[in-house]
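cron nightly-structures :: item 1 of 1
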Amino acid sequence: MSTETTTASEQRADRPAYRYDAEMAARIERKWQDFWETEQTFHAPDPGQPGSEKPKVYLMDMFPYPSGAGLHVGHPLGFIGTDVLGRYLRMNGHNVLHPMGFDAFGLPAEQYAVQTGTHPRTTTETNIARYRQQLRQLGLGHDPRRSVSTTDIEFYRWTQWIFREIFESWYDTDADRARPISELRAEFEAGTRPTPDGRPWVELSEGARRAAIDGHRLAYISEAPVNWCPGLGTVLANEEVTPDGRSERGNFPVFRRNLKQWMMRITAYADRLADDLDRVEWPESVKAMQRNWIGRSEGARVRFPVVGSDDAVEVFTTRPDTLFGATYMVLAPEHPLVSSLVPAQWPDGTDPRWTGGAATPAEAVAAYRAEAARKSELDRQENKDKTGVFTGAYATNPVNGAAVPVFVADYVLMGYGTGAIMAVPAQDQRDWDFATAFGLPVVRTVDPGEGWTGEAFTGDGLAINSANDEISLNGLGVDEAKRTIIDWLAATGAGEGVVQYKLRDWLFSRQRYWGEPFPVVWDQHGPIALPEDQLPVVLPDVDDYSPKTYAPDDANSEPEPPLSRAHEWVAVELDLGDGPKQYRRETNTMPQWAGSCWYYLRYLDPENTERFVSAEAEKYWIGKDTARSVADPGGVDLYVGGVEHAVLHLLYSRFWHKVLFDLGHVSSEEPFRKLFNQGYIQAWAYTDARGTYVPAEEVVEVVGEDGTAGFTWNGQPVTREYGKMGKSLKNVVTPDDMCDRYGADTFRLYEMYTGPMAASRPWSTRDVVGPQRFLQRVWRNLVDETTGEVTVVDTAPSEEILRSVHKAIAGVRADYPALHYNTAAAKLIELNNALTKRGTPVEREVAEALVLMLAPLAPHIAEELWQKLGHDDTLAYAPFPVADERYLVADTVEYPIQVNGKVRSRVVVAADAGQDDIRAAALADEKVVAALDGAEPKKVIVVPGRLVNVVR
């Protein structure tokens, strides 16, 4: 929203020549940014270099995507916060690494390429240059040598190398770690590991051998249910699909389809990913989100033989004790058994409610699957109206021999368990609702207790109605009943106890151009990883950056990625060790997640052409530190970013890191030792009568005749709302504008002062003037605005002012490492106000302490003042002040005085006053005298250092 501001020319008019204003701030800031760059001030020494003997600290921000719009004032909140901490730690003798890079493979650049024909690299590099300029303008102390972009060919060479390492690995469940595929092959060859069909390795064809190996790889090809959007011609991530089953971009229908895709076997690491959360210093809320996403649960896998078939439907259940109450089964629409189960005709006596009005089971199932494919997973989970159709098939309940009907229903998802459930309506509300809708039987197997009048009972109780000729669960509690039935299932071959996870293997391919090419070629037997010396596989130039699109409702269409049309690139002759042969390159690309899984490692050694990171650099910067804890997993010392990345990015990074650890490529077990989630900058947004957002900076505040405020845009009233700052709400304020109008130091101080780092806070441009005035007062206290000369004096400060200074030092030293920058700034403002009120020149000892304490928050003005105070070098490594305990001891103590439990007054006495003196001072207070009204107190209790309690 528009506000009155002061221009630089207006600031100059009739003002002293050396007043600290936006114009002077700009000159100072450019000067010191150039100095830091020229003098390599923030170059962090690597192990073995001078300076590396200091205690190291690795600080890192979640790197940004470089959009064409550039940074808005919400983006730098975390960046400034880590910079403040880094500057403070350098001043306290630490070797601080604080890098910044760019998560640059992204859909917006590809969309722009489709629209304009401009290569995505051109757009991306232009955007990165803009971001670099904006970040430099903020005075951030990054090590510029270590900046990386995920689109740099030398960077994604190593992304491809890591993918190759994952592809060439398998998870050994006995050793509980990843091992090279070569070791698996050796076990097959030696016969110490049986082949899938039991034949000796030498008897297997090349295709059978490849299939046996490929079935174990951590990166593999699989038929997977995906979100297929014909209108866009690509598979979409769940996050790109709206709750009503349409694409977030373009609003096209999205269908659930089984397609061949690259997958990562992250599920092999489920237990380690969950258990090792106990070893990292992360917010408990984030740990809980990751544990819930992994979703570890213990139960049983049970096989229900299909009547009249050799097939069996497998289900996973956490409540095998309720098996006797399973009266029907449900398969997800995508379940691979659905098609083979469906008979030609409806069985005799089929309930009409089960058929969906179709003449045959095949028609009913096909129509229902098509309808379900249009829904998102979220919609399917949250939809309270239970729908489904009978497949026409029955399965046998193994505990009682009952034939139970098999349905297809969209409330069951392939993404969890086996994609099939045994439905126990008496113990599950969703099953109860479905059974009620379709007239299916309900059998209670858990006693809900006397007087139960509800529907499904989901609590614990004793088993009932649960016995056959071989086993009885009746009267057993839930835990004992579970153990008993699992033992019986295992003994009869009907099932076994298992641990199941909500976590699914990671879908790792995209039908897009602007992404990392897979380092893979195909022959008649499947995929082959390219040897290391043939990396990188560079993206070819193409004429059309868009995937082939189809009619929005063409659910049966097939993906055709842009790379598939680069025919000369796709068909390639290579020598992979057995002579030149023809191969076909992989035409999908990796998802944007790939580069962000490991970029923190490349920061450590960005120019290394032999390894993705040297062992020495990795161990020095993120290796395990047993001095912290014997269970320390290593990792980045502090990782700062938004909570929106709490699950996927962080989980994927942890998975890649653990694979690298298992293979001996890194010494640390976790990528991020400590995590901090910063809040968001929020701002007012405005919508017109259509509900469309209008530019906030063009909105005008108007005051009606009744004194109430309103808002208009182009003369028309608009509605005001609060939201996260962003392009979509058209409420963006840029840091460029703030730096031009106030200076970077003022902008930094405003963002840090407005609230705790972890809290979201409102943006108000008009309030930025407050921090600016504070910096102006600091300048004026130390510099003559007319001559530009320093006004500090070399006399000794009074004890009173030394107490104020050292109180501030103690407070700020506690606040900075705790990221309490708002309270640190408040303490500096309080100290400066005390200096201003004195009206006398500031003593050098006081001035230097103030400047050094201010430096992390406002480094440019602090550097300039430090230089004016006679110092030749940067204060970036100057010792941070240490409080003198002598000045932290109070001379006096204020005691509240209670009379019969109510505070009546306060009295100030000497800190070393005895109880008799304190009692006398309290009874002499005029308000206490009045409260006693001439009466002698019955008792006077003095609590040393805290209060005086007078009992009348």
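cron nightly-structures :: done
The longest helix spans residues 120-137.
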